[in-house]
Amino acid sequence: YFKDTVKSLAKYFKVNTNILCSLNIPK
How far apart are CA 6 and CA 12, in angstroms? Predict the structure, then answer.
């Protein structure tokens, strides 16, 4: 269960990072 949670958090963090990068590109 803990490993699964870490996987989910990592996935969520990766998605957030991609979104931030996308938002920063226009600047």
Answer: 10
